[in-house]
Amino acid sequence: MKDIITELTDLKYLKWDKTRHSSGTAGSFLKSYDETGNIKKYYKLSDYVPGTGIVGHECINEIIVQRLLSILGIEHLEYRLIHALINIDDTEIETYLCESDDYKSRDESKIAFEDFYTLSKNTGETPLEMCKRLGWETHIYNMLITDYLILNRDRHGANIEILRNRKNNTCRLAPLFDHGVSLMCRCHSDEEFASYDVMEDKRVQAFIGTANTTDNLSLIPTSYIKEFIKSHPFKDTDKSFIFEGLDDIVSKVFLQKAWEMISRRYDHLGNI
User: Fold this and answer.
1) 10, exposed or middle or buried, with CB in 10 Å at 0-12, 13-18, 19+?
2) Rounded to an integer, what distance in angstroms lies between the CA atom of residue 250 and that of residue 237?
3) Structure pTM?
4) pLDDT for residue 21 is more than 60
5) Closest by alpha carbon to 153, among 87, 231, 213, 236?
6) Residue 22 has what pLDDT?
């Protein structure tokens, strides 16, 4: 798969910190960037614990979710999963990390959705109402569906972005990005994966809507959900596509539980 590079890549020159340099790297996870080439590249790690190493699988989640979004026809940031050798605090670590390119065009600048909302909302207008006024409701409905299917817990106001083109005086919502804190993101063993209740709703960060992904489906017209399911049916080959190349990177128990979450939540979506 073009989105997985299994050959060990020497990236020890990268400097890692928690400062957000780019789109798709908000939160507490270590991140980095490289602008030595023609295209600026951004990097982020799965959950890292000093003295222990990489303990999370958030970068794996990014690849699973981007493949799901490709199947569903939802615009998203493209990540590459890279087998890499990195250096953190003078310690070499072999891990898989995520690499992405800048999705802004040359004439665009970015602003966090929460900041744009503060500047652009009408009096008493909710974030969703503002998006409807600006003609962005389809993008938001697709985002809410995505966050339900994968139990995304991190859709805060900076994990949605606005791209502004001052030359043309236009604004657009950025492609969906940053889905690492989803699926079984707080589990770290096969025992935890196996016992995970994929239909349980957990409290999430959601700048648009509530802290419950199931409740947020009620913000979407039922007719839209029905048409979405009709237009994007799962096929037998979709499971193979979503997990291709990951068998040797993460456990089969993890992959089976991830599929159970996506497929069961998708079935529930179809029953609304």
Assistant:
1) exposed
2) 20
3) 0.94
4) no
5) 213
6) 42
